């Protein structure tokens, strides 16, 4: 059983990650300074070093938190619907349309522009997310593998929604994210639903 001190330490850690998550979702890693996290969380700067070692350590925790939330959301959505390709496309686009999902695009630059623990954590989490997608496709639509490689399809689905989010982030006044999401959902449904039963997609 956790002691009061352990519970307080865990609560401090949770508040720091939550504050950093909100800052990173709004402005990426640059907005997530140690001082900004301390101010937003109401916790001293020294606590960041105590719990995470450095800003990169905190960023890794934020990446892990972001993907954990995403996977949890997906599993809940998929468990609530009849299994199939359409259910995955709806869950996929519902996830990427959530306001907090912008963190995947805001932290992407940090993850790909330098070799770091943050980049490695981001890549590892994406591997796990793609595996969730491809495993679901294999189980929910076994005929699909006769037409499409589920691993490649998982990459394509995630790439499309990430691309929509990035474009919306760059140009929110012009890019209709909801319309783009609906268009991509219709394309995937039209292309993949016939393949669920193993028939060639037209």
| Whole-number mean pLDDT | 86
CATH superfamily of the domain at 59-196: Tetracycline Repressor, domain 2
Q: What would you call the shape? A: elongated
CATH topology of the domain at 59-196: Tetracycline Repressor, domain 2
Q: Give unreliable regions as ranges.
A: none
Helix content: over 70%
Distance between the termini: 58 Å
Describe the fold and architecture.
There is one protein chain. This protein is mainly alpha-helical. It has a domain at 59-196: Tetracycline Repressor, domain 2. The protein is built from ten helices and no strands. α3 (45-52) packs across α4 and α9 packs antiparallel against α10. It is elongated.
Task: Give a short overview.
The chain is mainly alpha-helical.
Using brief descriptors, characterize the structure shown.
202 residues, mainly alpha, Tetracycline Repressor, domain 2, elongated
Secondary-structure map with pairings?
Layout: H1 4-27, H2 34-41, H3 45-52, H4 55-79, H5 85-97, H6 103-106, H7 108-113, H8 117-140, H9 150-170, H10 177-196
Helix pairs in contact: 1-2, 1-4, 3-4, 4-5, 4-8, 5-9, 5-10, 8-9, 9-10
């Amino acid at each position: 059983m956790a002691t009061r001190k352990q519970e307080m330490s865990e609560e401090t850690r949770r508040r720091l990650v939550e504050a950093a998550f909100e800052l990173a979702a709004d402005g990426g890693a640059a907005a997530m300074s140690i001082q900004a996290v301390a101010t937003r969380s109401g916790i001293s700067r020294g606590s960041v070093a105590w719990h995470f070692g450095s800003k990169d350590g905190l960023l890794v925790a934020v990446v892990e938190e972001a993907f954990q939330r995403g996977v949890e959301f997906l599993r809940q959505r998929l468990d609530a619907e009849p299994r199939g390709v359409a259910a995955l496309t709806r869950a996929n686009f519902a996830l990427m349309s959530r306001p907090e999902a912008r963190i995947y695009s805001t932290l992407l630059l940090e993850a790909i522009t330098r070799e770091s623990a943050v980049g490695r954590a981001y890549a590892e989490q994406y591997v796990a997310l793609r595996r969730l997608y491809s495993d679901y496709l294999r189980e929910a639509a076994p005929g699909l593998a006769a037409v499409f490689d589920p691993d490649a399809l998982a990459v394509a689905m995630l790439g499309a929604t990430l691309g929509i989010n990035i474009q919306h982030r760059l140009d929110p006044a012009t890019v209709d994210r909801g319309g783009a999401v609906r268009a991509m959902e219709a394309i995937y449904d039209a292309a993949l639903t016939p393949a669920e039963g193993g028939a060639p997609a037209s």
